[in-house]
């Protein structure tokens, strides 16, 4: 397998071997420096030309593009060479625009390009059922879509192992993810005001020594002060992935109150660690969190509903243990990397089997 990614540093080698059979190639497309995601579109034509030149010499059996801009580059190349293409969006412009409106910084043509990719590829691999509905609204029929969820490393994220040391509060909530308004940390802070004896640990954003500079941290601290819970909200900052399981294991309940969530890997990581999850009933969380067996689903942007669901779990240690155990079983049954890889391979095989026979090729 070869992974193609844009070169964003002139010192990067052309090729990097990750493990046996897996290689990363750095594609010269645009200046070799970091570029904000929403400014990458002008370089996709060059990316696609590079892919076409490379694949003309040594064509892959199948191409799988991820995110809409990679889809554009890949679609240009496979059209020229007649190669099969599968695409995973991971996030859709229609959803982002609906929720962020004027704050959406995506290029204006994003939705049109996403539609072109969805209609032009051989198969879309969606990550949840909610995405299938969204794609249908874009005119992409469900018969062209296969649902394969994201996965989690069940050997790293496990109930066994060290847990973060308890704080002074009786209970601990944990929220993990990027520090952007749509992730709903403000909702969790408002809910905390209704949960006495409970602290909220927020993991994500810049490193701990740069938290004071972050605009979102400053905004959330003001909200916490206004709600009278500043002394019960703790910001950890961004941490390496290897430190995340211990933080999850140290929580009583993991909260995921995003306004919208295209898939949401945090509920899976929490469930894999045997922790109950209270999440907003949006996007992929509708698939991953089974209410009431592994946690609770609540309306987005509703701190009262979030507080009620969390409060019920905090008051019932046996329910928390049962949810945690059920969550672990659910992850092992549906979301381990082995199952996700097998489902992805099956989608590849289905597309390859549907390709027209080529003269001289068996």
TrEMBL record:
Domain Glycosyltransferase subfamily 4-like N-terminal, first and last residues per copy: 2-155
InterPro entries found in the cross-reference section: Glyco_trans_1 (IPR001296), Glyco_trans_4-like_N (IPR028098)
Swiss-Prot/TrEMBL keywords: Glycosyltransferase, Transferase
Record-annotated Glycosyl transferase family domain positions: 172-330
Gene3D superfamilies: Glycogen Phosphorylase B
PANTHER family named in the record: GLYCOSYL TRANSFERASE GROUP 1, GLYCOSYLTRANSFERASE
Name of this protein: D-inositol 3-phosphate glycosyltransferase
Organism: Streptomyces glomeratus
